[in-house]
Design a protein that fits this description.
Elements: H1 9-25, H2 29-35, H3 40-68, H4 70-93, E1 98-104, E2 108-113, H5 114-128, H6 132-143, H7 149-175, H8 182-201, H9 221-235, H10 240-244, H11 249-276, H12 282-307, H13 313-331, H14 336-364, H15 370-399, H16 402-427
Antiparallel strand pairs: 1-2
Helix pairs in contact: 1-7, 1-8, 2-3, 3-4, 3-5, 3-6, 3-15, 4-5, 4-6, 4-8, 6-15, 7-12, 7-14, 11-14, 11-15, 11-16, 12-14, 13-14, 13-16
């Protein structure tokens, strides 16, 4: 089979490079936004630009990857990231020119400047071309067997976490030079360029990126128009509603949405909780997330590889969601000890649940529609990210640590849906 002939490691390297470039800049994005005239709310809007525009770009790029090939669309996505960092670099080099002073009851007081607009454009452009996640998931589904799928998605998550480990560390080293934050941005530009070169020269095209055609319409130049027409006719039918009608897809994507909703509530509320209730500083918070990333590398790497050969994706999804519920419940007690105990549950829960869910989605979807379905899943996660990022801060302001109980309740919905997902699978002939 073609599955065994293509190495996954070039794709993992491309994913690592993409995450590394992003995590180089995110640690000091808040300081740049404030320096260019923004406030905390504008920072939140800046951070949400990526998922807002990915909401529209992800499904389109996913469908295109079914039609034109995974490699071509991954290349477009990576070029988009490269251009977005160029725009970001321009924002840091141009003078801070004021456009208008804004005093709003909703957005607060801030100054709209030219560099601030450039940063908004950069994050939006990266989002609209941000189909790399959905296309990478579809690519892995093309080249791996069902038996190895969960383990392979775990390795993809490991490459992501490694990027988030090394990126902030490298940013810290580069930003203390005389060039300040501009050097990490230049590094992000160069790293994105390396990603482009790796896709061009090291990543082969997936052998399963288009629909399985009958032999009589493959081959000659005269027949190429028939092939193209057939690809278009089938792919054009795979709109949002058609994908939602596929058996089992809506339930799986609902789980996607709920997981990312709970995650983003956590990632918004926890730093405030750590600063106000645990009395942590930036170094303590950085240590916490570094330990989490290291634990995730272990869980999603060797541990998941071992357990996925012994237990089903459905069992790992269900048990993982239960562990994440325990993580959020422990956070309510606001002690350092229980917070770090909860960290273990977070790593185990996320490490078992997320790769298993991606594996289930890829196995539920026919090969010819992997890109389209993965693209729609990106929209679900983007929408959940937008809602969670906005709601998390407001909820913590009103409910305090009870916000984590709300996140646990959301994940209890994931737990119930995963039980039904397993039952529906058993009922299939």
């Amino acid at each position: 089979m073609a599955e065994s002939k293509i190495s996954i490691y070039p794709l993992l390297a491309v994913n690592f490079i993409g995450t590394l470039g992003l995590s180089l800049v995110l640690p000091f994005l808040i300081f740049l936004v404030e320096r260019f005239g923004g406030n905390a709310i504008i920072y939140g809007l800046t951070a949400s630009m990526y998922p807002i525009f990915q909401l529209f770009g992800g499904p389109l790029l996913g469908r295109w990857s079914d039609m034109y090939g995974r490699k071509k669309i991954l290349l477009i996505s990576q070029v988009g990231t490269f251009i977005s960092w160029i725009i970001f670099l321009v924002a840091m080099l141009i003078p801070v020119t004021k456009i208008i002073d804004v005093k709003s009851e909703i957005l607060g007081t801030f100054v709209l400047t030219v560099p601030l607009i450039f940063i908004f454009i950069a994050r939006a452009f990266d989002g609209i071309t941000g189909g790399n996640v959905s296309v990478a998931n579809a690519y892995l589904a093309d080249i791996t067997s069902d038996a190895d799928r969960s383990s392979v998605y775990g390795k993809l998550s490991v490459s992501t976490n490694l990027g988030f480990i090394f990126g902030p560390a490298l940013a810290g080293i580069l930003s203390v030079t005389i060039y300040g934050e501009i050097l990490p941005v230049i590094a992000a530009v160069l790293i994105s360029l390396v990603g482009i070169l790796m896709i061009i020269f090291l990543l082969p095209e997936s052998p399963e990126h288009t629909i399985h055609m009958a032999p009589h319409i493959r081959g000659s130049k005269a027949e190429s128009g028939i092939l193209k027409e057939n690809i278009y006719s089938v792919s054009n039918k795979m709109g949002f509603l058609e994908i939602m009608k596929m058996q089992g897809i809506f339930r799986i994507l609902s789980i996607y949405f709920l997981i990312f909703l709970a995650y983003n509530v956590f990632y918004t509320a926890f730093p405030v909780h750590a600063a106000n209730n645990l009395k942590w500083n930036a170094a303590s918070l950085g240590l916490y997330f570094s330990i989490l990333s290291l634990l995730l590398v272990f869980v999603e790497g060797p541990l998941l590889s071992w357990v996925s050969k012994r237990y089903s994706d459905y069992l790992l999804l269900t048990s993982g969601s239960f562990m994440l519920i325990a993580n959020f419940v422990l956070l309510v007690y606001s002690t350092d000890f229980l917070t770090y105990v909860s960290l273990v549950f977070f790593a185990l829960g996320n490490g078992f649940m997320w790769p298993s869910l991606m594996s289930i989605l890829s196995k539920t979807t026919k090969k010819e529609y992997q890109g389209a379905v993965q693209g729609v899943s990106t929209s679900f996660t983007s929408l959940a990210s937008i809602v969670g990022l906005v709601a998390g801060g407001f909820m913590f302001s009103f409910f305090g640590t009870a916000t984590f109980v709300i996140a646990a309740s959301i994940l209890f919905g994931v737990f119930l849906l995963s039980l039904k997902l397993d039952s529906s699978k058993k009922e299939d002939p």
